[in-house]
Amino acid sequence: MPFLAAIFSALEVVPLTLLTLDAWDFIQLTQSRCDTCGINISIPHKWTFYFLMAVGFWNFVGAGVFGFLINLPIVSYFEAGTILTPNHGHTAMMGVFGMMAMALMVFALRQVLTDGQWRRPEKYMRISFWGLNAGLALMVATSLFPGGVLQLLDVLKNGYWHARGPEFSGQRIVRIIEWLRMPGDLVFIGLGVIPALIAVILTYRSINNQPP
Question: Which residue segments constitute the domains of the chain, with CATH numbers given?
């Protein structure tokens, strides 16, 4: 039964991967021209589709790859409760549901603004998109995944109790890896969250300044 549950957990990658491919088709459409008039095709919800593509990417990496690592019954005995668990949790939760929420928010912001009003918020949403994805990637690459691998190796060598105790967490290399998460956090907040908040504020002000 646990093995069957692990299979279904891994298969959730399939539908969202198809969603990513569909979003990519829309992105390609924004870079094309009308066959009859020769004018560039304008898609107002470009950044919505970019965030939807991020959903598919992080679903594959976070829920698929990292989730499969800790869901298999053979390995979950050694990995559940280690840093590999939040490594999966951060990428799957923020990467899938967080980016989906961002896509819905961008869709709503763009829908209530004209093309001219959208120019300023769009600049910040562009920064937010790359900031959120880069920050999340840095968290994983510099801290969560390396720390999880070291902890797993300690589990296999000294036992689960040792890897969960101060004998492991007190090591200098482990503390360095923990501090290495800060750059990813700063990028995530400074270039991801704050620009998105500014875009929301600009949209709100534009709506209030519209004539009745």
Answer: 2-208 (1.20.210.10)
